[in-house]
Amino acid sequence: MTIREVLRQSASMLSKSVKNPKKEAMILLREWLKKDDIFLAAHDDFEVNDIDGFFEWVKQRAEHTPLEYITQKVSFYSREFIMKEGVLAPRPETEILVDKTVELIKEYKASRVAEIGTGSGVISIMTALLAPQIQIDATDISRKAVELAKLNAQKFGVEDRIKFHLTTFLDGVCAPQILVSNPPYISKKERLEEHVLNEPHIALFGGEQGDEILKEIVLLAKKLGVLALACEMGYDQKESMKSFFEDNSIKNYCFYRDLSGLDRGFIIKG
């Protein structure tokens, strides 16, 4: 089959399960052929080999498997990270959390950072790349996540500056100067798209209300006396977190928004 025929058939297969079947068919075929969009557009009569293998990819996507699990890669901060099933794929808005963390490192001239819930490792790795003077401890309760994060750290040559820990919160880890986290913050009551539900639930759901783990991290940061905490949160959690800060005598905080104008995270300074 030619590229033109393959794209037509795969878009048809995806039409009932994704919002933009033509675009996703293009993404999958681009990754399968290891070509760019320009090649696909200019060579629509090119014969595609191992067509059965490609359509197995399309079938997986039609069954709501996340694209990142199929291609085993994800783009973050203009870098290509390794991605594997069982680990949450990073979202573009989390790039802002990296920026906020680097700003805090520069402000406090910090040398020790810790991340709770590292997942694929992208936050710690990008922070290490952007702030080469720091050492990072990154934790996660998922063995799959820790193993993947180590692979990504090796890929980008920062494995000697990030120590990954299979542990809860910061158990067994020395108190950092700067603490960062993009923890699970979705309420168990919230309805999610099917492809999202195929990602690990422990990395998605933060409790009945969604903000329970966020609050635990805030209290931990206060107890440890960190210089600053940066966290991502849900777009609808500003008021609940603000009330929590005030109830716990936390004064020096601010919220930040993502590029869509939605409340997306907060910074607390000690």
Give your account of this protein's structure.
β10 and β11 (263-269) form a beta hairpin. The radius of gyration is 20 Å and the shape is elongated. The mean pLDDT is 93. The protein is 41% helix and 19% strand. It starts with a helix and ends with a strand. With 270 residues, the protein is α/β, with parallel strands linked by helices. The protein contains eleven helices and eleven strands. The strands form three sheets. It has a seven-stranded mixed β-sheet with strand order 5-4-3-6-9-11-10, sandwiched between helices. A two-stranded antiparallel ribbon has the order 1-2. A two-stranded parallel ribbon has the order 7-8. It has two domains: 3-63; 94-269, 3-Layer(aba) Sandwich (Rossmann fold). α1 packs across α2 and α6 crosses α7 (122-130).
Kindly list the characteristics that best describe this protein.
elongated; 270 residues; alpha/beta; 11 helices; Rossmann fold
